[in-house]
Protein backbone atom coordinates (compact mmCIF):
# COMPACT_ATOMS: atom_id res chain seq x y z
CA UNK A 1 0.00 0.00 0.00
CA UNK A 2 1.45 3.40 -1.06
CA UNK A 3 0.34 6.50 0.86
CA UNK A 4 -0.02 9.34 -1.66
CA UNK A 5 -1.00 12.89 -0.66
CA UNK A 6 -1.99 15.51 -3.25
CA UNK A 7 -1.55 19.19 -2.40
CA UNK A 8 -3.71 21.18 -4.82
CA UNK A 9 -3.37 24.93 -5.39
CA UNK A 10 -6.89 25.90 -6.48
CA UNK A 11 -5.80 29.23 -8.02
CA UNK A 12 -2.78 27.94 -10.01
CA UNK A 13 -2.94 28.46 -13.77
CA UNK A 14 -6.48 29.18 -14.88
CA UNK A 15 -7.80 28.02 -11.49
CA UNK A 16 -9.94 25.28 -12.99
CA UNK A 17 -8.41 22.11 -11.59
CA UNK A 18 -10.51 18.89 -11.72
CA UNK A 19 -8.44 17.21 -9.03
CA UNK A 20 -10.64 15.76 -6.28
CA UNK A 21 -10.45 12.60 -4.20
CA UNK A 22 -13.39 11.23 -6.17
CA UNK A 23 -11.66 11.90 -9.53
CA UNK A 24 -8.37 10.33 -8.41
CA UNK A 25 -10.04 7.25 -6.92
CA UNK A 26 -10.89 6.13 -10.46
CA UNK A 27 -7.12 5.91 -11.23
CA UNK A 28 -5.61 4.73 -7.93
CA UNK A 29 -6.94 1.30 -6.91
CA UNK A 30 -7.97 1.19 -3.22
CA UNK A 31 -6.01 -2.05 -2.67
CA UNK A 32 -2.70 -0.45 -3.69
CA UNK A 33 -2.98 3.24 -2.88
CA UNK A 34 -4.23 5.30 0.03
CA UNK A 35 -5.09 8.73 -1.41
CA UNK A 36 -5.54 12.03 0.42
CA UNK A 37 -6.25 15.36 -1.32
CA UNK A 38 -5.63 18.70 0.42
CA UNK A 39 -6.25 22.21 -0.95
CA UNK A 40 -4.12 25.24 -0.12
CA UNK A 41 -6.12 28.28 1.00
CA UNK A 42 -3.44 30.97 0.97
CA UNK A 43 0.20 31.67 0.08
CA UNK A 44 2.47 29.45 2.21
CA UNK A 45 -0.36 27.12 3.27
CA UNK A 46 0.94 24.22 1.12
CA UNK A 47 4.05 24.03 3.32
CA UNK A 48 1.91 23.52 6.44
CA UNK A 49 -0.19 20.90 4.67
CA UNK A 50 2.95 19.01 3.62
CA UNK A 51 4.34 19.09 7.15
CA UNK A 52 1.09 17.46 8.33
CA UNK A 53 1.32 14.91 5.50
CA UNK A 54 4.85 13.99 6.58
CA UNK A 55 3.51 13.34 10.12
CA UNK A 56 0.76 11.26 8.53
CA UNK A 57 3.48 9.07 6.94
CA UNK A 58 2.88 10.06 3.30
CA UNK A 59 5.39 8.33 0.99
CA UNK A 60 4.64 10.40 -2.10
CA UNK A 61 3.54 14.04 -1.98
CA UNK A 62 2.21 15.44 -5.22
CA UNK A 63 2.37 19.18 -5.88
CA UNK A 64 -0.62 20.09 -8.07
CA UNK A 65 0.14 23.58 -9.31
CA UNK A 66 2.98 25.55 -10.86
CA UNK A 67 6.53 26.37 -9.76
CA UNK A 68 5.30 28.32 -6.70
CA UNK A 69 3.35 25.33 -5.37
CA UNK A 70 6.24 22.97 -6.16
CA UNK A 71 8.49 25.28 -4.15
CA UNK A 72 6.21 25.21 -1.09
CA UNK A 73 5.82 21.42 -1.26
CA UNK A 74 9.36 20.40 -2.24
CA UNK A 75 11.01 22.69 0.33
CA UNK A 76 9.79 20.18 2.97
CA UNK A 77 11.16 17.17 1.06
CA UNK A 78 14.80 18.15 0.48
CA UNK A 79 17.18 15.40 1.68
CA UNK A 80 14.26 13.12 2.53
CA UNK A 81 13.17 9.72 1.17
CA UNK A 82 9.66 11.03 0.44
CA UNK A 83 9.07 11.30 -3.30
CA UNK A 84 7.84 14.49 -4.97
CA UNK A 85 5.17 14.02 -7.63
CA UNK A 86 4.07 16.85 -9.92
CA UNK A 87 0.78 17.52 -11.67
CA UNK A 88 1.51 20.67 -13.67
CA UNK A 89 -1.63 22.79 -13.50
CA UNK A 90 0.26 26.10 -13.11
CA UNK A 91 0.79 28.82 -15.69
CA UNK A 92 4.48 28.60 -16.64
CA UNK A 93 5.30 25.14 -15.21
CA UNK A 94 9.06 25.58 -15.76
CA UNK A 95 10.27 22.60 -13.71
CA UNK A 96 7.59 20.22 -15.04
CA UNK A 97 8.45 21.20 -18.63
CA UNK A 98 12.14 20.54 -18.01
CA UNK A 99 11.22 17.13 -16.52
CA UNK A 100 8.87 16.46 -19.46
CA UNK A 101 5.92 15.85 -17.16
CA UNK A 102 2.84 16.23 -19.38
CA UNK A 103 0.18 18.88 -18.78
CA UNK A 104 -2.42 16.27 -19.69
CA UNK A 105 -3.91 15.23 -16.34
CA UNK A 106 -4.39 11.54 -17.16
CA UNK A 107 -0.85 11.20 -18.52
CA UNK A 108 0.63 12.96 -15.47
CA UNK A 109 -1.33 10.58 -13.21
CA UNK A 110 0.02 7.57 -15.14
CA UNK A 111 3.58 8.71 -14.36
CA UNK A 112 2.72 8.80 -10.67
CA UNK A 113 1.60 5.19 -10.87
CA UNK A 114 4.70 3.97 -12.76
CA UNK A 115 6.97 5.80 -10.28
CA UNK A 116 10.21 6.26 -12.19
CA UNK A 117 12.33 8.37 -9.82
CA UNK A 118 15.29 10.68 -10.47
CA UNK A 119 17.24 12.82 -8.01
CA UNK A 120 17.56 16.51 -8.89
CA UNK A 121 19.69 19.37 -7.58
CA UNK A 122 18.25 21.99 -5.29
CA UNK A 123 19.37 25.62 -5.16
CA UNK A 124 19.65 27.38 -1.81
CA UNK A 125 19.90 31.12 -1.20
CA UNK A 126 20.47 31.93 2.46
CA UNK A 127 17.61 29.95 4.12
CA UNK A 128 15.38 29.51 1.06
CA UNK A 129 15.34 26.60 -1.37
CA UNK A 130 14.58 26.96 -5.07
CA UNK A 131 14.04 24.28 -7.66
CA UNK A 132 13.62 26.26 -10.89
CA UNK A 133 15.14 29.72 -10.81
CA UNK A 134 16.02 32.88 -8.97
CA UNK A 135 16.06 36.33 -10.53
CA UNK A 136 17.19 39.82 -9.55
CA UNK A 137 16.67 43.13 -11.35
CA UNK A 138 14.30 43.07 -14.32
CA UNK A 139 13.05 39.51 -13.55
CA UNK A 140 12.00 40.53 -10.03
CA UNK A 141 10.43 43.76 -11.28
CA UNK A 142 8.33 41.80 -13.77
CA UNK A 143 7.08 39.42 -11.04
CA UNK A 144 6.25 42.48 -8.88
CA UNK A 145 4.03 43.79 -11.71
CA UNK A 146 2.63 40.29 -12.39
CA UNK A 147 1.61 39.77 -8.75
CA UNK A 148 -0.40 42.99 -8.74
CA UNK A 149 -2.76 41.47 -11.35
CA UNK A 150 -5.44 38.90 -10.55
CA UNK A 151 -4.89 36.52 -13.49
CA UNK A 152 -1.98 34.10 -13.84
CA UNK A 153 -1.47 33.54 -17.52
CA UNK A 154 0.87 34.26 -20.43
CA UNK A 155 -0.84 37.48 -21.57
CA UNK A 156 -0.71 38.93 -18.04
CA UNK A 157 2.95 37.96 -17.83
CA UNK A 158 3.71 39.69 -21.16
CA UNK A 159 1.86 42.82 -19.94
CA UNK A 160 3.91 42.79 -16.73
CA UNK A 161 7.08 42.49 -18.87
CA UNK A 162 6.08 45.52 -20.98
CA UNK A 163 5.34 47.54 -17.85
CA UNK A 164 8.78 46.62 -16.50
CA UNK A 165 10.44 47.75 -19.74
CA UNK A 166 8.80 51.18 -19.16
CA UNK A 167 9.63 51.52 -15.47
CA UNK A 168 12.70 49.42 -14.59
CA UNK A 169 15.75 51.33 -13.34
CA UNK A 170 19.21 49.70 -13.16
CA UNK A 171 20.01 51.59 -9.98
CA UNK A 172 21.11 48.92 -7.51
CA UNK A 173 24.76 47.98 -7.10
CA UNK A 174 25.62 44.27 -6.93
CA UNK A 175 28.99 42.77 -6.07
CA UNK A 176 28.92 39.17 -7.21
CA UNK A 177 31.66 36.71 -6.35
CA UNK A 178 31.48 33.89 -8.79
CA UNK A 179 34.04 31.15 -9.48
CA UNK A 180 36.74 33.07 -7.60
CA UNK A 181 36.19 36.33 -9.52
CA UNK A 182 34.38 39.43 -8.36
CA UNK A 183 32.06 41.38 -10.66
CA UNK A 184 30.68 44.80 -9.69
CA UNK A 185 27.68 45.87 -11.71
CA UNK A 186 24.35 47.71 -11.76
CA UNK A 187 22.66 44.85 -13.50
CA UNK A 188 19.66 44.81 -15.74
CA UNK A 189 19.37 41.12 -14.83
CA UNK A 190 20.96 38.44 -12.71
CA UNK A 191 19.20 35.15 -13.45
CA UNK A 192 20.20 31.91 -11.74
CA UNK A 193 18.62 28.70 -12.96
CA UNK A 194 18.51 25.00 -12.18
CA UNK A 195 16.21 24.33 -15.16
CA UNK A 196 16.55 24.73 -18.92
CA UNK A 197 13.11 26.38 -19.15
CA UNK A 198 11.98 29.50 -17.31
CA UNK A 199 8.28 28.88 -17.88
CA UNK A 200 5.95 28.59 -20.90
CA UNK A 201 8.58 27.90 -23.56
CA UNK A 202 10.92 30.75 -22.67
CA UNK A 203 14.50 30.16 -21.66
CA UNK A 204 17.78 31.99 -21.34
CA UNK A 205 19.51 29.05 -19.63
CA UNK A 206 19.00 26.39 -22.30
CA UNK A 207 22.16 24.49 -21.27
CA UNK A 208 21.11 24.00 -17.63
CA UNK A 209 21.00 20.37 -16.42
CA UNK A 210 18.88 19.46 -13.39
CA UNK A 211 21.34 17.05 -11.78
CA UNK A 212 24.82 18.27 -12.75
CA UNK A 213 25.57 19.89 -9.38
CA UNK A 214 25.66 23.36 -10.96
CA UNK A 215 23.40 26.36 -11.40
CA UNK A 216 23.52 28.32 -14.67
CA UNK A 217 23.85 32.08 -14.24
CA UNK A 218 23.11 34.81 -16.77
CA UNK A 219 24.27 38.30 -15.86
CA UNK A 220 23.37 41.30 -18.02
CA UNK A 221 24.87 44.63 -17.04
CA UNK A 222 23.03 47.98 -17.18
CA UNK A 223 20.93 48.52 -20.33
CA UNK A 224 19.13 51.58 -21.68
CA UNK A 225 15.50 51.30 -22.88
CA UNK A 226 16.49 50.88 -26.53
CA UNK A 227 18.87 48.04 -25.64
CA UNK A 228 16.20 46.36 -23.49
CA UNK A 229 13.93 46.19 -26.56
CA UNK A 230 16.82 44.91 -28.66
CA UNK A 231 17.50 42.24 -26.01
CA UNK A 232 13.82 41.16 -26.06
CA UNK A 233 14.16 40.68 -29.83
CA UNK A 234 17.39 38.68 -29.39
CA UNK A 235 15.77 36.45 -26.71
CA UNK A 236 13.01 35.57 -29.18
CA UNK A 237 15.72 34.60 -31.70
CA UNK A 238 17.57 32.67 -28.95
CA UNK A 239 20.74 34.73 -29.36
CA UNK A 240 20.69 37.05 -26.35
CA UNK A 241 24.41 36.27 -25.85
CA UNK A 242 25.19 38.67 -28.73
CA UNK A 243 24.96 41.80 -26.57
CA UNK A 244 28.24 42.82 -24.95
CA UNK A 245 26.66 43.29 -21.48
CA UNK A 246 25.87 39.54 -21.34
CA UNK A 247 27.85 36.85 -19.51
CA UNK A 248 27.09 33.17 -18.76
CA UNK A 249 28.52 31.17 -15.85
CA UNK A 250 28.05 27.78 -14.21
CA UNK A 251 28.45 27.81 -10.45
CA UNK A 252 28.11 25.56 -7.43
CA UNK A 253 28.25 28.51 -5.05
CA UNK A 254 28.37 32.29 -5.19
CA UNK A 255 28.08 35.33 -2.96
CA UNK A 256 25.88 38.23 -3.94
CA UNK A 257 26.25 41.52 -2.08
CA UNK A 258 23.51 44.01 -2.80
CA UNK A 259 23.91 47.67 -1.90
CA UNK A 260 20.88 49.88 -1.89
CA UNK A 261 20.81 51.91 1.32
CA UNK A 262 17.24 53.18 1.35
CA UNK A 263 15.04 50.55 -0.23
CA UNK A 264 14.33 46.90 0.30
CA UNK A 265 15.62 44.49 -2.33
CA UNK A 266 13.18 42.36 -4.28
CA UNK A 267 13.97 39.10 -6.07
CA UNK A 268 11.93 36.33 -7.61
CA UNK A 269 12.27 32.77 -6.39
CA UNK A 270 10.49 30.10 -8.45
CA UNK A 271 8.24 32.83 -9.89
CA UNK A 272 7.21 34.26 -6.50
CA UNK A 273 8.28 37.64 -5.14
CA UNK A 274 10.63 37.78 -2.14
CA UNK A 275 11.70 40.87 -0.23
CA UNK A 276 14.84 41.42 1.78
CA UNK A 277 16.90 44.32 3.12
CA UNK A 278 20.24 45.07 1.45
CA UNK A 279 22.26 42.03 2.38
CA UNK A 280 24.86 39.47 1.52
CA UNK A 281 23.24 36.41 -0.03
CA UNK A 282 25.01 33.05 -0.17
CA UNK A 283 24.10 30.80 -3.04
CA UNK A 284 24.77 27.06 -3.04
CA UNK A 285 23.66 23.85 -4.74
CA UNK A 286 22.57 20.73 -2.88
CA UNK A 287 23.41 18.09 -5.46
CA UNK A 288 20.71 15.49 -6.22
CA UNK A 289 18.94 16.16 -2.92
CA UNK A 290 15.31 15.89 -4.06
CA UNK A 291 13.71 12.70 -5.39
CA UNK A 292 11.15 13.38 -8.12
CA UNK A 293 8.79 11.06 -10.00
CA UNK A 294 9.18 11.74 -13.74
N1 LIG B 1 -6.00 29.35 -2.17
C1 LIG B 1 -5.04 30.20 -2.52
N2 LIG B 1 -5.34 31.51 -2.72
C2 LIG B 1 -4.39 32.38 -3.12
N3 LIG B 1 -3.10 32.05 -3.38
C3 LIG B 1 -2.76 30.75 -3.21
C4 LIG B 1 -3.70 29.76 -2.78
N4 LIG B 1 -3.06 28.56 -2.70
C5 LIG B 1 -1.77 28.80 -3.08
N5 LIG B 1 -1.58 30.09 -3.39
C6 LIG B 1 -0.39 30.76 -3.92
O1 LIG B 1 -0.54 30.84 -5.34
C7 LIG B 1 0.73 31.21 -5.90
C8 LIG B 1 0.87 30.74 -7.34
O2 LIG B 1 0.99 29.35 -7.40
P1 LIG B 1 1.76 28.59 -8.57
O3 LIG B 1 3.09 29.19 -8.81
O4 LIG B 1 1.71 27.17 -8.24
O5 LIG B 1 0.84 28.84 -9.85
P2 LIG B 1 1.15 29.64 -11.19
O6 LIG B 1 1.76 30.97 -10.84
O7 LIG B 1 -0.10 29.64 -11.98
O8 LIG B 1 2.22 28.71 -11.94
P3 LIG B 1 3.76 29.02 -12.41
O9 LIG B 1 4.51 29.50 -11.20
O10 LIG B 1 4.27 27.72 -12.90
O11 LIG B 1 3.66 30.07 -13.49
C9 LIG B 1 1.75 30.66 -4.91
O12 LIG B 1 2.44 31.77 -4.34
C10 LIG B 1 0.91 30.01 -3.82
O13 LIG B 1 1.47 30.18 -2.53
Summarize the structure.
The protein is α+β, with helices and mostly antiparallel strands and 294 residues long. The protein has 8 helices and 16 strands.
Keywords:
294 residues, alpha+beta, Rossmann fold, six-stranded antiparallel beta sheet, binds adenosine-5'-triphosphate
Order of helices and strands: EHEHEHEHHEEEHHEEEEHEEEEE
Shape: globular
> What's the structural domain tally?
2
CATH top level of the largest domain is: Mainly Beta
Low-confidence residue ranges = none
Q: Write out the distinct hetero groups bound to the structure.
A: adenosine-5'-triphosphate
What portion of the residues fall into strands of 2 or more residues? 25-35%
Give the biggest beta sheet: 6 strands, antiparallel
**Share of helical residues:** 25-40%
Assign the CATH topology of the largest domain: Tumour Suppressor Smad4
> Major sheet: order of its strands?
6-5-16-13-8-9
Q: Specify the number of helices.
A: 8
Could you characterize what this model shows?
With 294 residues, the protein is α+β, with helices and mostly antiparallel strands. The protein folds into two domains: 114 residues, Rossmann fold; 161 residues, Tumour Suppressor Smad4 (Sandwich). 26% of the residues lie in helices and 35% in strands. The chain is built from eight helices and 16 strands. The strands form three sheets. A six-stranded antiparallel sheet has the order 6-5-16-13-8-9, with no helix packed on it. The longest helix has 14 residues. It is globular. It starts with a strand and ends with a strand. The site of adenosine-5'-triphosphate has 25 residues, from helix 3. It comes from Maribacter luteus. One of its GO terms (biological process) is phospholipid biosynthetic process. InterPro entries: ATP-NAD_kinase_N (IPR017438), Diacylglycerol/lipid_kinase (IPR005218), Diacylglycerol_kinase_cat_dom (IPR001206), Lipid_Phosphate_FormReg (IPR050187), NAD/diacylglycerol_kinase_sf (IPR016064), YegS/DAGK_C (IPR045540). Keywords: ATP-binding, Kinase, Lipid biosynthesis, Lipid metabolism, Magnesium, Metal-binding, Nucleotide-binding, Phospholipid biosynthesis, Phospholipid metabolism, Transferase. It holds the Pfam family DAGK_cat.
Amino acid sequence: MRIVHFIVNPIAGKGKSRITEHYLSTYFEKDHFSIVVKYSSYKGHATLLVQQSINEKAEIIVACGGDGTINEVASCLVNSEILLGIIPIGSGNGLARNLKIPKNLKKAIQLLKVQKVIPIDVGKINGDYFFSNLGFGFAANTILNFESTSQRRLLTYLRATLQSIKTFKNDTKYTIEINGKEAVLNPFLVFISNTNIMGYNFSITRKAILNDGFLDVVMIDRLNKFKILYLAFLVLLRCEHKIKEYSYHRVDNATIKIENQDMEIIFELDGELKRTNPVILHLEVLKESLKVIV
